[in-house]
Each structure stands twice: as structure tokens, then as C-alpha cells.
Write a structure and sequence with these properties.
The protein has 5 helices and 7 strands, in the order E-E-H-E-E-H-H-E-E-H-E-H. With about 300 residues, it is of the alpha/beta class. The strands form 2 sheets. It has a 5-stranded mixed beta sheet with strand order 3-2-4-6-5, with helices on one face. A hairpin with a 2-residue loop joins strand 5 (about 230-235) and strand 6. Helix 2 (about 105-160) packs antiparallel against helix 3 (about 165-215). Residues about 1-40 have low confidence and may be disordered. Bound molecules: zinc ion (ZN).
Length: about 300
């Protein structure tokens, strides 16, 4: 009796190159301040500095009320931190804050869309990366058990005595075991095929993700663009906002420009609002920002 149960199991999970696109500070930016009148005389330390909303490009998809609310939030950050009103909404006399739409905002929106798409790929990829090796290992164990049973049966068959007293009963039993093993082999093969399909799907998803990263218009980290600008010329202040990827970023940018409007210069601490480059660490005014304000206003 011969058994032609042969299974070839390829359980090498060859994952394609899986490189996470480092989540750089997309939307990171620097801005400049016109240094023309950046001196203590330009500082506003006593009387509140008025601001008002100027041009709001509709392409930003912000209502005037939303823009004023966000600007007010940034102003309140300074007012609360310092404990007095440094900045005041003055719709008639305040200095102008413009929202100017250009390619910068389009680039930020594109980056945000890319990040969202990559996140979706990652959600699809992660479970497979975690589970597939485990499932292949489980299948390996089952195959080892199967091979053991097969070897045992082969041994019993080789020891089978056709002329023994209960030979017919033994033969039937061995045939039943053989049938059972064939069914088991079929089932194992189905499992293996399913895992290979899962693996192919995973590899294809990873390939698509890598392709998206490669073809995407990634931000040039060496040359981040300005998202806000404060100009002070002959005591005339003007703030221009060019781009933002979230309300949090926008408020941080406005708070930063307000700092310049008051007369404060950049701080070296990356988590401070007055750091020269917008980054995710900037949430609130820090001790460094307050020191910068104190030193600005003490020189008056
Ligand atoms: Zn600045």
C-alpha cells in the first residue's frame, strides 16, 4: 500500500521591503520678520495692541467668525500668560491680519491627504504583519504533527500481516486512518493556500504603499516654507498668514506672529511659541516665551 500524500510547504514569509516613511514635520515652516523696526521702541508692553481681520481668502474655507475666534485664541494665550491685556480685537483701528492663499496652502493640503492615505495603508498592513508569521508558525506545527502520524501509519502498514487472524479488520482500520490523513492533508493544503493569499495581499498592499511614498510630492525638508509673516514698517504692523494644516498649527503661528508684533524675537527652545520654526511641540506659551517677553519689555 502506498501513500501519495505529499505536501510541499513553503512557509517563508518574504515580506517586501517595509520602510516606514519617517513622519517628518510636514508643514514645518519658518517665517521671517521684517527687522526694520525690531527695536525696543516697537515693543508694546503697556497699552494693548489692537488687531483686526483683513482679507480672508475664501479658499481657506474659514468663515470670518472662525478666523476671529482662532486669532482671539492666540491673543488670549499672551494675555493670560502675562496677566494683562497685550492684544485686543479692534475691528476699527487694529493692525491688519490677512489670510493669503497661495501654493503653500495647497502643498500643505496635499501633504495632509498623503498622510491620511498612508495611515489607511498602515491600518491595513499592521494586522497582517503581526498575525501572518504567527499563523505560518501554527501551520508548521500542525504539519509536523501530520508527518508524525503519517510515519506511524506507514510503520503499521509495513508491519501488516495479510495472513494474520484478524487481518481483514486491521486492513479496514488502516484504510480508515489513511482516509483520515488524506482529509487532513487536504485541509492543511487549504490552510496553506489561504495563508499564501493573505501574504500576497499583504505584499501587494505594502508595494502600493511604498509606491505612493515614492511618487508623492514629499516636502523638501531642507527648505521649509513660511506659513506666517509679520512686517513692521514705520510702526505699521501687518500680519499675513499663508498656510496651516490644522487649527492648532494656525493658532501657534498667529501666537508666534503676535509675539513679533509685540516686539519679541525668536527663542532657542523648540517647544516655545517663539521658536523660529513651527513644530508639533508648540502647544502653549512656555517659560522661555515669558522670559523673552520680560526681557523685551524691561528694555523699554
Ligand atoms: Zn518668527
Amino acid at each position: 500500500m502506498s501513500f501519495l500524500i505529499r505536501l510541499t510547504f513553503i512557509v517563508i514569509v518574504a515580506f517586501l521591503g517595509w520602510r516606514f516613511w519617517t513622519q517628518s514635520n510636514v508643514g514645518s515652516s519658518v517665517e521671517q520678520i521684517t527687522q526694520q523696526v525690531m527695536n525696543p521702541k516697537a515693543a508694546y508692553c503697556q497699552s494693548p495692541l489692537g488687531w483686526r481681520l483683513g482679507n480672508l481668502d475664501p479658499a481657506f474655507n474659514l468663515t470670518e467668525a472662525q478666523a476671529i475666534r482662532l486669532i482671539s485664541t492666540a491673543a488670549e494665550m499672551w494675555n493670560n500668560a502675562v496677566g494683562k491685556e497685550l492684544l485686543r480685537h479692534d475691528p476699527a483701528q487694529g493692525f491688519v491680519i490677512d489670510f493669503k492663499f497661495d501654493a503653500r496652502q495647497q502643498q500643505l493640503l496635499k501633504q495632509r491627504l498623503l498622510q491620511r492615505n498612508l495611515a489607511r495603508y498602515d491600518e491595513a498592513i499592521q494586522p497582517g504583519l503581526q498575525n501572518l508569521p504567527e499563523k505560518f508558525a501554527e501551520l508548521d506545527t500542525k504539519i509536523a504533527e501530520f508527518n508524525q502520524q503519517k510515519a506511524q501509519l506507514q510503520q503499521q502498514i509495513s508491519q501488516f500481516q495479510p495472513n494474520a487472524q484478524n487481518a481483514e479488520a486491521q486492513r479496514r482500520q488502516l484504510e480508515q486512518q489513511q482516509q483520515s490523513l488524506i482529509r487532513e492533508a487536504d485541509w492543511l493544503e487549504q490552510q496553506r493556500q489561504q495563508l499564501l493569499r493573505d501574504q500576497n495581499y499583504l505584499n501587494e498592499t505594502i508595494r502600493q504603499r511604498n509606491e505612493l511614498v515614492q511618487t508623492a510630492d514629499l516636502p523638501t525638508e531642507t527648505a521649509p516654507f513660511e506659513v506666517g509673516l509679520m512686517t513692521i514698517k514705520q510702526q505699521q504692523r501687518q500680519m499675513t498668514l499663508f498656510a496651516f494644516s490644522s487649527e492648532t498649527d494656525l493658532v501657534a503661528t498667529i501666537a508666534h506672529e503676535f509675539g513679533h508684533a509685540i516686539g519679541i524675537e525668536h527663542t532657542p527652545e523648540p517647544d516655545s511659541i517663539m521658536f523660529h520654526q513651527l513644530n508639533a511641540q508648540q502647544q502653549q506659551l512656555t517659560a522661555a516665551d515669558l522670559r523673552a517677553w520680560q526681557s523685551t519689555c524691561q528694555t523699554q
